[in-house]
Queue: 4 jobs
Job 1
Amino acid sequence: MEKEIYEQSTTIKRAALQDRKDMEKSVDMIENAERVYLTGCGTSSYAASLGAKYLREAGHRVEVEQSHELEYRSDEITEDDLVIAISQSGETADLLSLLDEVDAEVLSIVNVVGSTLDRQSGHTLYVNAGPEIGVASTKAFTAQLTVLKMMNYTAQRELESGRESLVETASKVEDVLKENEDTVTELSKYLQKRENVYFIGRSIGYEIARESALKLKELSYIHAESFPGGEFKHGTLALIEEGVPVVGILGKGDEEMMSNIAEAKSRGADIIGSGKEKTEGFKEFIQIPDDENSEILQIVPFQMLAYKTALKKGNNPDKPRNLAKSVTVK
């Protein structure tokens, strides 16, 4: 897994080198569809949620839902609609089951060429991350985000400038890991003794909070949950007491996020932050450089944190218990 985390400086760049005609065809499919649904499972569902936010920025009305839940609404999806299906393996049972129930055209974003999803799609965008051996997805996730951002840039007629910005983002991955190495190591020592961790974020930051929590629970077996910053005070705040770690993903809506963080801190929480600018009150802070695609950089240290925490606890981060790389049963 560690190797795959470091490979992201290459795989993000490779994912950005999508063919112009493929990207334009994808945008045409979106623009010609009556309704657009983005879907996936696990990590890919968080990529789908981010993709929905990107496409909304480009002016498109889209829906997003995890595949196993969207299947219950499959009768709403018509042949005039488009399903954007996201999967690393292309063999995810819940996703394929959904597609068996609908007549809509399918645009897939997939890593494995020739997979079932690839074969069943009207058009496929390959993320080109290469074989991902670790059960917990790392480089495939950031490659998915890269392709989805390329789709957004294409929709806004900014394909080439967007491509350049993503290549620049890729060049910062190793520096982000190096500059946060000591912080991540100290955090892994701290977290290995904790039973619960709460991640909060707003807008795009919420999706990064979700994926960060998933990585930590997958590998360290620590109970980790994520919440929108605004929702945190509606119930979950009751769980916060002295010494409970709360991770704040800073980005869009920083002022509101700092208010949410202050509420947790006033109840005794240990506050861990991630973003561009550190302010007072954080136990530890993961620094992320200013970047047009900062969310791609923001997830990388949390992947490494999950990996190191797993090692500290004596877990095998490449093969977490009870989990499979490709979930081929419903």
Job 2
Amino acid sequence: MAGRFAPTPSGRMHLGNAFAMLAAWLSARSRHEPIYLRIEDIDTPRVLPGADRMIMDDLTWLGLDWDGEPVYQSARQAVYDAVFERLRSLDGDALLYPCFCSRAEIRAASAPQEGDGFLVYPGTCRRLRDEDRDEVERRLAAGRRHSWRLAVPGAQEPSAFVAFDDLVYGAQSFNVGRELGDVILRRSDGLYAYQFVVTVDDLLMGVSDVVRGRDLLRSTALQIWLRGQMLRTGLGSHNLPAADPQYAHVPLLDNAAGVRLAKRERSLDLGRLREAGVRPDQVIGYCAWHMGLCEGVLERPEAMSAQQALNLFSWRKVRRHAGDVVVPGNIVEVLRAL
């Protein structure tokens, strides 16, 4: 098996990123398996120059090492192009279709999923493809701006249901037709979308241990379904662990107002914490405590190295502490007191 760090270089890592990175590292190292570093810089407009170096510096500061050279998605365009063409030709071009809808049109025709505002595409251009292929060809010939969408099974089709077992949150089941819909694989500006590139990379890099935040539970169902289509094209092998990874989604860290930490909140990024005199063992100790690793060992959080956290690690402990963590406003003082 093999794990991976997969940061987006859109800013400095924050405490929540460190929490998830530590969990990924502990999972891989507890089995004496490799963990790779993949810089997810495919969305070039969001990339902050130099953020990749800051991420690597922060990982090293925390004591979280990786195997091999970092892999940059921006250098894998030819790989993505080849896989995209494989999918386009699958089932007589039924799997992908061009979408000419604007964002405003999609918002107007869609109903958000309850609770999170996620918009499921209403299928406008899929119906156009099925009912009037000549019109689709005319629009393409005229150079109409378009993205490319993945045609997932309809909500009533048995193949729309995807189930998997998460090491933290247990049995999961999603209807990809109802809960995710026909997601974009290539944007109208030509850039490939997250769901596509992460599935390609995990499969081809041999990643079989996927650890990340619980906000991506639903995306996992889509990626499992999409991975199945890629395997059908002959990409990868059904017999390798990466064809059927194990998943662990970890709790999120929220700020004092209950809002998930984001890179735009620089007050909680590792650069600010380091400038304030916070040590790496204090960050590791805080994260390990909130993962539940100190259960039955310590009565309060204490500073510790990544190796010391590794000696305490088990997914069974994390499973018993699956609630999100609220980071107090005085986190610098909390950390420095460890």
Job 3
Amino acid sequence: GSSGGGGVGGVQVLLGELDIPLANFEASLRAYCEAGATEQPFDVATVDRTVPEPTPLEQLKAAEASGGAGAPKTDSQHREALAAMPELAHLGELVKSSAQVQLTEEDTEYAVSVVKHVFPEHVVFQFDCSNTVAEQQLSEVSVLMDTADAEDFEEEAIVPLKSMPYGSSAPTYVVMARAEGALAFGKFYCTLRFNVKEVDPNTGEVEEDGFDDEYQLEDVEVTATDYIAPQGVSNFKRSWDELTENEATDDYGLGQRDTLQSAVVSVLESLNMAACEGSDAVPPNARSHTLLCAGSVMGLAVCASVKLGMDAGRNVAMKLTVRAEDEALCALVHELVGQ
């Protein structure tokens, strides 16, 4: 334990030397006190020295705190993990991975989240699954994705998860094909499917006969943001001047804002692009500002110039000019802001 003047710190030093878990010490001491008046002094030797097993929820929280299972992975970490899977080896180079999104409420029996991986002609959905109930063993886990509102996609493969771990998470994958290079969008209705076997909490024995069950997850959407990756450029003007072929400009109202700085933050969030030339910092009390940002979509360059102005009523107006290597990408970026 850590040292410290008196208090818990001192107790931990003492217990550390005696090799006793603090929780066990507290429990024994509480039991001793609750027993009422007694001739016997409290005996440290009676305290159980085995370290209590953390519950699955505690394990998950500890992993998140230490940047373990719950910490977001970088694109390069995703790239390595996916490349190591023979079922996905033929998909080519990973273009971009999205942020992790939770698909279950906090205190449900199953914890499921999704990460979307964009490949040249596919999107791979990685569903990280965790079982939070010790009395059940879940196997043959997969996610059924209904494409009724995602017609530009076609399911190509499912990589099931043999068993859903208790207290940690493991992935099952769905591979969706999209027309070559096309930016397909849509909403999927998702159902978690699995086989359940009861576990005897006393003996840990698993019943032989299981039954199939399913659980409704939140919908998963693929939007324009999933294809845009922030990509800083060393010289914005040069990149801007190189993209003269395709340009689209439009005006938008962003409503009332306290400062232009808060408008810049939300625009960057919507566009999912990288601010250039330090233009994401707005001088205090500024009434007008230009944000320059850059990104890439499926390897093609996109640049945006965002002119912002604030009137006396704190209403913010925005003039967005987008240049890109492909005409469709200009429209795509405008769509993001219009949403």
Job 4
Amino acid sequence: MTRVALAALVVLSGIMQPVFAQHPSRSSPEALEWLQKIAAAPRQHNYIGTFVYSSGNHIETSRIIHLVDAEGEHEKSEVLDGAPQEIVRNNDEMRCYMPESKTIVTEKRWLQKVFPALLPQPLSSLDDSYIVKLGGQERVSDHACQIIELEPRDDKRYGHKWWVDTRSGVLLKAAVMDKDRVVEQFVFTQLKIGVEIDKESLKSKYMAKAAGWRTINLVSSTLGSGKLGWQIKDPPPGFKKVIEMKRNLSGKPMPVGHIALSDGLAAVSVFIEPVSGQVAPPVEGLYRSRGAINIYSRTVADHIVTAVGEVPPATVMQIGDSVVSHRVK
């Protein structure tokens, strides 16, 4: 599962900043062309590699195999440190194998992003929320890279600095920035692009022994706009509702409401569930999760509202405080 999904499950199971200085208002046309190349790369190239995620004192290593064929994208990623975990993806269908708990979690990808595929396709305009700039060139894991910087136009979102393989457009390194401070970073330490991949290598190594494991299906059913009975009344500039749905979550007796917002890059999920006498509600307030993820929980009209996203604390709080109920027409 992705870090945002895991953070949301932890909270739902009970377990203001100065405005940035004025910037030039226009993005570099050449840098915007690079964004298109970055977004398209995972749909065009095979790759096998090992990357490291770091945030503060936490370091985590993962291995990824990515294949593109006539049927779409196929991918297997495996966490190599700590508790073992393996994610197998076929296009938007994901299966997460967790051998220590003998559990398989299945779900759709929706807005979830896994390095190096950090940009959606088709790529929506990021120019409204970020100034996209062309940086210099550097070498990462023996690949020549073009640096692209995404500078936020306000303090409602983090900045980003990306190192892009000049030949393929695959991201080799990605840093989330809070002004000059690195909040979190992904970097390939070894990567082969354009290699032949045996489809058998994309199968989970736990398949044979997982027949008797518990399977949790995080089924989602999308709803028409406004049909959930909740809305985000005052979202931060640039953040638009992408989808609203009902989702099954592990340990929940009934589906949970879910509204997703995005500015084209950063995404925030809002989960809404009735207060249950069987489960102690999470403590209200702001939770600091790992890296760029922040979580905010409050109670509204006998419901627990939890906002989770890779955005600054003030942004996730603004979104959580803007959730109101309304009559469904």
